TrEMBL record:
<feature type="transmembrane region" description="Helical">
    <location>
        <begin position="45"/>
        <end position="66"/>
    </location>
</feature>
<keyword id="KW-0812">Transmembrane</keyword>
<keyword id="KW-1133">Transmembrane helix</keyword>
<protein>
    <recommendedName>
        <fullName>F0F1-ATPase subunit Ca2+/Mg2+ transporter</fullName>
    </recommendedName>
</protein>
<feature type="transmembrane region" description="Helical">
    <location>
        <begin position="21"/>
        <end position="39"/>
    </location>
</feature>
<keyword id="KW-0472">Membrane</keyword>
């Protein structure tokens, strides 16, 4: 009986990892993009800091995904 449920648990675990990775990427992009936007508003840079913040957030999100979910 427990053998019948193991593929279901494996797919649920994979889905959890996928949602975790997606959450890291989106939250990093949003948080660091917002920080960049605040720096833009403060220093009147015309959007450059926002773009840098978004790229930095994605890079940090990828780093966290690899560190946390990598083998």
């Amino acid at each position: 009986m427990t053998d019948d449920q193991s593929p279901r648990r494996d797919s649920a675990r994979g889905a959890d990892q996928a949602y975790t990775a997606l959450g890291y990427l989106i939250s990093g992009m949003l948080i660091w993009g917002f920080v960049g936007w605040l720096v833009d508003r403060w220093l009147d840079l015309g959007g450059i800091a926002t773009a840098i913040g978004v790229v930095m957030g994605v890079a940090l999100g990828v780093y966290l995904v690899v560190k946390r979910l990598g083998a």
